[in-house]
Amino acid sequence: MSDGTDQRRLRRSARQIGLWTGIASAVILTAGVGVLVAVILLTARPDRSADPDDAGRPLDHIVVDVDRVLPWVIAFGVIGVVLLGGVAWAAARLAVAPLGEALRIQRNFLADASHELRTPLTALNSRVQILQRRHNRGEPIDETLQRLRHDASAMEDILTELLMAAEADHVPADTTAADVSAAIASAIDTLRPTAEHAGVRISASHEEGLRAGIPQVTLTRLCVALLDNAVQHSPMGAPVTVASSRGGRTVQLRVADRGPGIPDQDRATIFERFARGADTGRRRGFGLGLALVRDVAARYRGSIRIESSSAEGTTFLLTLPMAD
User: Are 83 and 29 contacting, i.e. CB atoms less than 8 angstroms apart?
Assistant: First the structure.
């Protein structure tokens, strides 16, 4: 979030809090004075002992018994203090709300960046090891260097997209159409070293010509997250499949694994941040991948859900609007 945006939000919040506090305090004080005046008038009695005026008419004096009014004054004073204290408490909560939101965005960005960069860094490290082995054996390294450049470019794109997403007021506009087949192919290429290390095969089937209303790098991120989750929960030698198809005016991506399935008690929280299922014996996850998919898909008017899950495996269905 930029400094200008921060300052505008803070000024707007200060104006709202000041207006709300002033109105609430004025209402409480007006009500208190009105009730007190009503009590005085109801408990007052005419002063019959007053001397008449010069014309001989009785004076319109009233007598207020302090011992009858004083308890009301004390009671309404205490009530007023309590109510004003409540107003001050509510105003304080409203005042710190922008700070709390800023801290939440900061924590989410750090967690998202750590999670999103972990897979490309793993692939990058694997390719560096491959490059070193090929160099030592005197084998051609041009293809490996090209893949290294691709991985570095993918990391730069991810960082750029994360920084844009961190803007609290960021709303996608003029979204470029993403080539679904290209995004799937790029995600598979990114995860190939991880899948090979886990002994998992990734295969794809797709309908040609599908384009989703989402940036290309963002769709690739979603595919990487879903495939990475599937690889981590698949047994060695099992296949992971990703398929794309048209569903009315939407693009549907299905990622299926052959893992043990999602327990019933975990299905309600599987898309929450830091929700983690049982470990698979591979690298420990942080429970952010599926939460990020949900958040990003929702930002572009899409959705993610568990289509099926059993002891034979799990299928996730990602739905995105088709590009115009």
Answer: no
Contact 138, 269 (CB under 8 A): no
Q: What are the angstrom distances between the C-alpha of 26 and each of 44, 85, 133? A: 27, 14, 78
Residue (of 183, 194, 188, 193) closest to 233 by Cα position: 194
Amino acid identity, residue 215? P
Beta strands 313-321 and 303-310, pairing class: antiparallel
d(CA 2, CA 17): 22
**Beta carbons within 8 Å of 9's beta carbon, 6+ residues apart:** 98
Rounded (10°) angle between helices 66-137 and 3-43: 160
Strand partners, 252: 245, 319
What is the rounded distance in angstroms from the CA atom of residue 227 to the CA atom of residue 229? 5
- pLDDT tens for residues 251-288? 999 999 999 999 888 888 888 765 555 554 444 443 45
Of 181, 214, 170, 184, give the one whose Cα is nearest residue 324: 214
Q: How far is CA 27 from CA 34, 74, 84, 88, 219, in A?
A: 10, 19, 10, 14, 53
Tokens 């990703």 — which residue? 242
What is the distance between the alpha carbons of residues 234 and 257, in angstroms, rounded to a whole number? 6
Express each pLDDT in 180-227 by its tens digit: 999 999 889 888 888 888 899 999 998 888 999 998 888 988 998 899
Beta-bridge partner residues of 239? 201
Answer yes or no: are the C-beta atoms of 218 and 297 closer than 8 Å: no
In whole angstroms, give the CA distance from residue 324 to residue 313. Answer: 34
Give the length of the chain: 324
Kindly tell me the burial class for residue 131, based on how many C-beta atoms sit within 10 Å of its own C-beta (0-12, 13-18, 19 or more): middle
